Amino acid sequence: MLSAGDGSGEIMITRGADTSAAFTEWVRKTSEQQGPVQDAPSITITQHDGANKPMVRYHLVDAWTSSWQGPTLEEGT
């Protein structure tokens, strides 16, 4: 388990386009409230190795989105 002493800290998640409706819904719910959401589930982040095998899991409780940035469109892509 990852701990920041008092149990708080920040994590930056960057990801490409995927089909995780559960993660997208968690971002939406917690972005609107800017704090823990009563009915939002805890989330687990899984880090994979180069062969896409799970290496480490981080379980987050009472976590929320503090900021969000959508994709950018670049000319010529």
From TrEMBL:
A Pfam family of this chain: Phage_T4_gp19
InterPro entries: Phage_T4_Gp19 (IPR010667)
GO MF: structural molecule activity
Protein name: Uncharacterized protein
Organism: Streptomyces inhibens
